[in-house]
Amino acid sequence: MSMNLRSHAEPGLAKSGQRDAMNRMYRLQRHVYDASRRYYLLGRDQLIADLDVPPGGTVLEAGCGTGRNLIRAAERYPHARFYGFDISDEMLKCARTAIVKHGLADRVRVAQGDALDFNAAKAFGIASFDRIYFSYALSMIPGWEAALRHAGTMLAKRGALHVADFGQFEALPGPMRRLMFAWLKQFQVSPRKALHAEFNALAEELGGRSAFTAGHRGYDWHLSLHAGR
């Protein structure tokens, strides 16, 4: 999102405002979201492959949207359980329909929630997860730093956190970089310049190790963290 609703309102009102904003955005977009995003949300399937979920493991997606990634991951790791949450009720309508359509309702569950304070224990009866990931979500979350750290609190011992998102287009010519940022702004997307630094800081807090790669000349960033606690 391009503005932080939380900075101008009480927490409850801010959360409601963010939820309403996302529902307005996706009320119609949700019907064409997956078909359109496949061309520019690069590296999502690589993120799923990198999860390397252990048998019987639990996986949480923060900002699961239409459920596209959850379904792909559940099909790739048939012996794991998958959970997701999103602030948009409209997107979750698509997710629930798709999960049932793919016959995965017994292994994939979703719930409505805010990335800054999602209560997994209340929603799913599970307090921690072996794998947690954000796929092109942090660039749309106000207070994304807090969302990242909250995810860290839900990570199981020796668990892993993964992020795929827009980078800073650092290897592109200046005019092209400016064009990309302007284009993304139309979708209320703000690539996080400090993402790499914040991720490294979280890894240090968790006593773990982090890794970073940039793809397509900095178009997409991929980060992973393996907790040491």
Describe this structure in words.
It is a single chain. The chain has a 7-stranded mixed beta sheet with strand order 3-2-1-4-5-7-6, sandwiched between helices. The chain is α/β, with parallel strands linked by helices and 229 residues long. The protein contains 9 helices and 7 strands. 40% of the residues lie in helices and 21% in strands. The two termini are 32 Å apart. A hairpin with a 4-residue loop joins strand 6 and strand 7 (220-226). It has helices at residues 11-29, 33-37, 44-51, 68-76, 89-101, 120-124, 144-153, 174-185, 195-205, and strands spanning 58-62, 81-86, 108-112, 129-135, 155-166, 209-215, 220-226.
Structural class: alpha/beta
Number of strands: 7
Low-confidence stretches: 1-9, 30-36
Please report the distance between the alpha carbons of the first and last residues. 32 Å
Number of helices, where a helix is a run of at least 4 consecutive DSSP H or I residues: 9
CA gyration radius, whole angstroms = 17 Å
- Largest beta-sheet characterization: 7 strands, mixed
Kindly state the percentage of residues in helix.
40-55%
Overall pLDDT confidence: 88
Basic shape: globular
What is the helix/strand order? HHHEHEHEHEHEHHEE
The spatial strand order of the largest sheet comes to 3-2-1-4-5-7-6
Portion in strands: 15-25%
